[in-house]
Amino acid sequence: MEEELLSSGNSKSAISQLCTRISQIHQSTLDKWTPHSHARWGGTILLLILFGLRIITKQGWYIVTYALGIYHLNLFIAFLTPKIDPAMDFDAEENGPELPTRANEEFRPFIRRLPEFKFWYSVTKSSVVGLICTFFECFNIPVFWPILVMYFITLFCITMKRQIRHMIKYRYLPFTHGKPKYQSHEESAGKINISPK
């Protein structure tokens, strides 16, 4: 009896160790991919193109496509939204926006509700799940797809209009392109041209 308990305990321990090891390998791989944003997004775009080609060639799984589009829209909105929503901050309602509006105010960087890496990871995982769903006929529910397309376009326009109004009202920009980049002292000293008199 004790031998059976020990053997079952050992098998549970071995399974637990295997799961832990797989989780460590998975996390290590994700950590290695973190700095390579262009390559990550390139792979995800290729995956989405593959998904789209499968939908077009097989002429089905429109419900899966619609659900995937709605999920990606929700992720995109979370990506554009600040972590601390100024609309929920009562001080911002009374005293104006919390973000600095003058040069002498404290700089506070834009912190997203959904960071870029988690956004990419969620989009990739959901795209893989959507692609896998296209191999099962039970998910191919017959539906008149132009209605889904029109509904998605309408929902996208309404949601983005609300998000853009929110950005304008609280004066924030969720992208970092075009912001000033500062040089180190060594770089600026190397560019100084001292001419003899």
Automatic annotation (TrEMBL):
Membrane topology of this protein: Multi-pass membrane protein
One biological process term in Gene Ontology: protein retention in ER lumen
Function: Involved in the retrieval of endoplasmic reticulum membrane proteins from the early Golgi compartment.
UniProt-listed Pfam families: Rer1 (PF03248)
Domain of life: Eukaryota
InterPro entries: Rer1 (IPR004932)
Membrane-spanning intervals of the chain: 38-56, 63-81, 128-158
Main localisation: membrane
Record carries keyword tRNA-binding: no
Subcellular location: Membrane
Family: Belongs to the RER1 family.
Protein name: Protein RER1
Keyword terms of this UniProt record: Membrane, Transmembrane, Transmembrane helix
